Amino acid sequence: MWSIEEFVRAAGVTVEELAAYVAESRRGDVPVLARRPPGELAERLGLAELIAKGGLTAETFRGFLRTYLAEGTRLHHPAYLAHQDAPPDFPAALADFVHGTANNLAAVYEMGAPATTVEIEVLKWMLAKVGFPRGGGVLTGGGSLANLTALLAARARAAPSAWDEGVPGDLVILAPDSAHYSIARAASILGLGRRAMVAVETDELGRIIPERLPDISGKRVMALVASACATGTGLHDDLRAIGEWCRARDVWFHVDAAHGASALLTTGHRHLLDGIELADSVIWDAHKMLAAASLAAAVLVRDERDLDAAFQQEASYLFYGDQGFDLLSRTLECTKGELGLKIFLNLAWRGERGLGEQVSRRYAAAHRFWELAGRRDGFALPYEPESNIVCFRYGDGDQAALRERLMDDGSFYLTSTELGGVRHLRLTVMSPATDDATLESLLDAIEAPHP
């Protein structure tokens, strides 16, 4: 089935088309997204016929790929200002190309010794940055899975017998309503149920008020969850104050730093993570601010024994004897890709300093938008941004309708969220191509009269 000659031709076509796609996207002279309905798109791509008959060749693949890319969302585009997914840097893209060909697996050492070794070294680097000198970690397929894994470790410490006997009814998780939805989802998956989620008091922007953390009588706090930064606003909880509260009460402290942990690589923003070393567990997504392609998320624990206790498994075809460097016992995923390679190649090409500078530039661009919008009438900006996320309103009209108008012709792609029950537009600067001209054009488009 594998033709070396055809692979070389098709790979050449792929590289040419992807290079043209990224260049075209970064110039911003095409729509940032297309919104064709699935049925029409399937017909345009000829999916049914190709599924039924096959027959794609290296030559005809060019047309298919060109259409496929044109119909998608262009994360490299300057007007991509929506979700927290990185426009991947090319070293990370090369890693996915390597994995797609070699398909070595990183969970079992003998299935991919280089893949596992690279992951271990990348994790050591991340652990050092977070401040866990005796910690342990694993890479997973996304932040939601990382949060679940960290809370499994917390459950193992609070209720060691839960794996065999079920979850005790007195366990609770403290978290703000602003926490990522995967925290509440994890509570139900873990068998605690939504009843176990206890909302902590926050300020008007969703940040935990450490002085008002509750005393839960008759319950055991399995974990307290803080954000660095919050998904909706990009604002950070006071990790040091919360961490000291947890230490004094022997409460597991989990920090969801999926987005914000990359600021540890900067000089101007690392203070936002002050106190992260007090955590028992931290998650850090490389596919957000480290410019890796999705997905690559780290679960990091201060004491690696806690991660080893998260799962208890038996499978004679996998677990036998001394497994040495296997990561399988620390993750839900049995078949786990070469996630560490994506992070490593970006580091190897750009260096720690280079990646940190990229983070700083995205944060600076978001702050610049805040400054520019603040100079215009009609814009309401409830806070000064701490990261590359800005929430704002324009006028008193329907903000969701305004967002739809901006997206109708593919000119700009933003998201929205609620603050205090009020809908706001939400801008996230992810693309290196986003500049002042882009931001001014967005503000002009928002202000433009619309029938």
TrEMBL record:
The modification N6-(pyridoxal phosphate)lysine is found at residue 288. GO terms for cellular component: cytoplasm. Keywords: Decarboxylase, Lyase, Pyridoxal phosphate. InterPro entries: PyrdxlP-dep_de-COase, PyrdxlP-dep_Trfase, PyrdxlP-dep_Trfase_major. One of its GO terms (biological process) is carboxylic acid metabolic process. GO terms for molecular function: aromatic-L-amino-acid decarboxylase activity; pyridoxal phosphate binding. It comes from the Bacteria. Transmembrane segments: none annotated. Its cofactor is pyridoxal 5'-phosphate. Belongs to the group II decarboxylase family. This is Diaminobutyrate decarboxylase. It comes from Nonomuraea zeae. The lineage of its organism: Bacteria, Bacillati, Actinomycetota, Actinomycetes, Streptosporangiales.
